[in-house]
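Entry 12.
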Amino acid sequence: MDDMRYYKWKFLLVVLAGWINRDQQKVIEYLLEENRIYREQRRGKRVRFTDAQRRRLAAKAKAIGRGTLKTLDCIVTPDTLLRWYRKLIARKYDGSAKHGGSSPERRAKTVETLIRMAKENPSCGYTRLRDMLMNLGFKISRSTVRRVLLDHGLEPAPRRSTWKTFIKSHWDQLAATDTFTVEVLTPLGLVRYTVLFVMHLSTRKIDIAAVAHDPGEVWVKNVFRGQVDAIDGFLLGKRYIIHDRDPIFSPAVQAFLAGAGVEPVRLPSHSPNLNAFAERLVRSIRSECLNRMIFFSEEALVLTIQQYAAHYHHEHNHQGVDSRILEPGKEVGQEHGPIECRERVGGLLKYYYRRAA
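Predicted 3D structure (tokens):
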């Protein structure tokens, strides 16, 4: 009787094992087919694995064995999988881990800190960055610093300094200058006038330096002579002035500015974004005012530009400085009283306010 029960149980176990094996075989066949489709879509393109992914695959591959791996049509060859496994074993029994080696988490933290330091200190070279890391307890060689930075697309120190870094570090000492032209209709036909202005980048305040027809080098030098005046020059306290490659800013003009203590910074060609604030002013004055008018005299042009400058400083909200008015009057922020409107340039420029009590 006991033998009969034993054989019944054995039969049931064999049937169950066969049923489970058939299900497992179906799963394996599905995964193999999915793998083949994936390889067809890749069409020979190299698959890049992280170290963590290599470790997982290598551990599974070792348990299966080379013979079975060859039948699975793997995305990585059996030899490569087993080579990864041997490296894992070598690392596991590497005695250097007991003498200052680091875990993957610590290596990741080292790289993260290095990248942060390199971006925040663009003038620091490989040796300096290595020493800064040592101060924090990270031991890394100079060659490793170089390799990590290059892997993350960071250039060596002289080429890692960016225009943004320069602007940020000299923000309060920076001015910008630019020109734009306006056509004036005279009895003799259209005459082109050049408007030269200067801007403080940190405050966005501007000075319409001069308006002239066919300006020359002497005229430009005289204009900037007033800008660098020791008493009330608009460029007092400024160390650099940004300008484009317009011929109006000739070598003689640049030499004059440098001699007056304001270093000219000549921008590369075709780079309007490097003088974006000045370019934005030109766009604004054209779209809000100049492009909507026809001028019949130089006096009308000068008066219009002066009116726009007054509106720009006292009535216009500037998004670049938290949407504030650069030089607000006492009426700004009033919550009571009738709303009034101040118009300039024949109503093209409007300013709404409440009269201050």
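Annotation: Residues 181 and 254 are 21 Å apart (CA to CA). The chain has 13 helices and nine strands.
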